[in-house]
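Entry under discussion copied across for reference:
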Amino acid sequence: MIWADTGFLLSKTSFQENLVIAIFFTKKHGKCSGIIYGATSKKIKNYLQNGNELYLEYHSKNDSTLGYFKIEIIHPFTSKYFYEKKKLTCIVSMVDLIKILTVDGQENIEIYNLLKNFFVIMNNQNWKIDYVFWELLLLKYIGFDLNISNFCKYDLTSNDKKRYFIENSSKKLIVPNFLVEKDENDICDRDIFNALVLISEYMKKNIFLPNNLNLPLSRQNFINYFK
């Protein structure tokens, strides 16, 4: 079996001295795994940064055996952010989420386009805000539409401004106003922190815990930048 496609590198794991097992999210074949030979050579090693988009040619004997990739770089997205720690941590967290939340071999053009758009919003002045809405779209595309305005409550501050929250028997989570009112003025890092914590709690309750999974450490590392 041979096919050609484009894909974003989600992870790579050393297998033997000169081999890695790589996982890509591809345009036509969804999430796929395969061997890359010569992965420690200088040329190929520089390409294999999580988040980069590559041209892939996949070869395997049949559907039940692990095949191998021949690769060519298309867009070396990640290398642009090596000296921007917050954005680089966001990329690491993002690819970990995609790897965990998607299904092997299941095409999803919406998620593929979402990956392409991720690197567009990384160049926006308000990228942190855009990224929060990016995560909400990701949840929607995998079947978990978090419509926050439908189940949050609010009280009023001394100046009659609404203060939103979600409360259950064990905790009370702050809902930043911009998630409900869609007003992107005067948003601080603490608002981003509260938004990411809220989405994390939703993912843990509805996706990770029911499937005996842990939220990736990279996610918490990214959130900590906004404390």
Notes: The first strand starts at residue 2 and ends at 16.
